Amino acid sequence: FPGLAVHPDKVHTMTDAEIDTEINFIRKQRNLVCIGECGLDNLWAEKSGKPEETKKRQQQTFEKLIRLADEMGLPLNIHSRRATKPVVETLERLKPKRAVLHGFSGTLDEARRAVNLGYKIAVSTAIFYSEPLQNVVKELPIADFVLETDSPVLAPVKGERNESANVTLVVKEIARLKRVSETNVVKATNKNVGNIFNII
Predict the structure, then answer these.
(1) CA 111/CA 89 separation, integer angstroms
(2) Which partner for 98 in 59, 68, 75, 147 could form a disulfide, CB atoms 3.0-4.6 Å apart?
(3) How far, in Å, CA of 159 to CA of 80, rounded?
């Protein structure tokens, strides 16, 4: 189930013309389930050596991809490393039709703002050490979540390589925190995936 985008960690290595060429290529594809990953990444902006310029170009590219997603009738798979606040502010301003906040690492308030726009929070294996993510899971309904692993990073134990199979550990931890059955977690999150990506 492919998704395509210009990832924010690549924006500073590309010219505007190259980015537009990629977007035009994506526009021609007919088998995509989403536009993504796309979004903002302040870690890579700092690494670029030109942080403010890179942040500006990431923002411009993100907005182009939001418009493309709505044009193509596709959801967004949104990357927001160290940039949840500006990502949520962009979503509130442009209001794309469907979106998932991948590898969510923001606050409960930011999660609620995203959910209020109709978007889903992707709960990753960071749930094992991220207190903010644990709070999001405790406070929001399972109906607001999808599951992910983000391999090879965000392993259940920091410093180890993550594997997609660890999604089962995410299910168990959500079930424990919410005091519900693992079956309920799987059913609710699978339903969300089906509704967003039209693949189940």
Answers:
(1) 12
(2) 75
(3) 20
Asked, as a colleague might, if the bond just before 152 is cis with ω within 30 of 0, I would say yes
SS3 label, residue 3:
strand
**CA atoms of 168 and 128, how far apart (whole Å):** 13
Both tokens assigned to 156: 């259940």
Residue type, 182: E
**In terms of DSSP bridges, do strands 99-101 and 34-41 run parallel, antiparallel, or are they unpaired?**
unpaired
- Rounded to 10 deg, the angle between the 182-197 and 167-178 helix axes is 120
| Cis ω before 132 (30° cut-off from 0) | no
Written as one string, the DSSP assignment of 28-95 is T-SS-SEEEEEEEEHHHHHHTS-HHHHHHHHHHHHHHHHHHHHHHT--EEEEEET-HHHHHHHHHHH-
**Which residues are 142's β-sheet partners?**
none
> Please, what are the averages of pLDDT over each run of 10 residues along the chain (200 residues)?
96 97 97 97 96 98 98 98 97 98 96 98 94 97 94 86 94 97 97 90
Strand partners, 145: 121
Burial class (CB in 10 A: 0-12, 13-18, 19+), 102: buried
**Tokens coding 153:** 């990073």
